[in-house]
Amino acid sequence: MVIKKLTLENFRNYESETFDFTEGLNLLTGKNAQGKTNCAEAVFYLCTGSSLRIRHDRQLIRRGSPFARAAAELVSRYGKVTLEARIFENKRELFVNGNKVARAVDFLGNMNSVFFSPGELRLVQDGPDERRRFLNLSISQTSREYCTALLRYQKILDQRNNLLKNRDVGMVMETLSVWDEQLAAYAARLILKRRAFLKKLGPLASAAHAYLTDGKEELTVGADGREESEEEARERLIGELNAALERDIRLGFTSVGPHRDDVRILIDGQDARGFASQGQARTAALALKLAEVEIFKELAGEPPILILDDVMSELDLPRRKKLVDRIAGVQCILTCTHAERVLYGAESHKIKIQGGKIVP
Ligand SMILES: Nc1ncnc2c1ncn2[C@@H]1O[C@H](COP(=O)(O)OP(=O)(O)O)[C@@H](O)[C@H]1O
Ligand SMILES: [Mg+2]
């Protein structure tokens, strides 16, 4: 999968700009705050329908403009694809090959991408939220079924949480079991899909990590909890929802389910969260991302677009070289402030950015 062209209009600090990318390494350079990450963000947004940086799409609209537009021309193994997002104050419209799509799930997965920035350290160091977000985005990119189940799950969860806040406990008790049946059914599907994904990801991440550390450290990634069938997971959840009911009514939200699950990440057998140094966390996060690239290759039958935002300067030289070697054959959009320091003479297409404009 290759992105050929990206057009931005009133997107972040871009008024109107078109990027032409090549198949290999594309190097976006420029001083700080010029628009490098904004460009990378636009590519990721077109892949996933979401940005890793923001809560509200309207933040993507250039200040003072009524709406933003981002569009990409791609070539996948099925042929040409165009993707477009029009973002307004209170809504957005998504188009695939010029046709408006009604649901985000029809937009997602037309173009796969893997995003790595210094912020991804949170994957290893922070609480479970970041890891769930990683799983949800990554699995959704290749599984429409997962994406649909996730959206339904979240919807029912919201409704259940609203109900829990209701003071009429009798009414809560009466209605809840209906929600719980549905919630547990979607939850079980999510849990099984995540487990299957982690089963693939785990060994790939270990291998990538061994490669990056010359086998000096061992990374283990896997799902929490024990193996179970979808039916078993569903029944277990019904049990857990019932057991937590009193507490949930008190708290006013649902305290058990896949929206609370975590991913296990161990370095040399120890929980990486809270224990890993900055350097270790960075290497582990990079290994996870390289594993994600491999998974997309396998599931989609072609490599994803790899976006490396500002990460080169944080890696030591041997790792940087290893990374460049490892991603040969994958289209990469790479941002950095100093081009000279980055690539060891590896061929790259350089684009310089200044104040939201490409410098000719
Ligand atoms: N919605 C927006 N409208 C106008 N400018 C924006 C918007 N969002 C971000 N910017 C500007 O974009 C710049 C940051 O761009 P960014 O791509 O993060 O920089 P870098 O080149 O360092 O990666 C800042 O100057 C910021 O003010
Ligand atoms: Mg940046």
Could you describe the 3D structure shown?
Helices cover 43% and strands 23% of the residues. It has 360 residues and is α/β, with parallel strands linked by helices. It has two domains: 1-112 and 304-360, Rossmann fold; 124-297, Glutathione S-transferase Yfyf (Class Pi), Chain A, domain 2 (Up-down Bundle), CATH 1.20.1050. Strands 2-1-4-5-6-7 form a six-stranded antiparallel sheet. α4 (128-142) packs across α5. The longest helix has 44 residues, at 169-212. The chain is globular. 40% of the residues are buried. The mean pLDDT is 93. Bound molecules: adenosine-5'-diphosphate (ADP) and magnesium ion (MG).
Give the structure's gist in a few sentences.
With 360 residues, the protein is of the alpha/beta class. It has helices at residues 36-48, 104-107, 122-125, 128-142, 144-164, 169-212, 230-243, 245-251, 278-300, 317-326, and strands spanning 2-11, 14-20, 25-29, 67-76, 79-88, 92-96, 99-101, 113-116, 219-223, 263-267, 270-271, 305-309, 332-336, 349-354, 357-358.
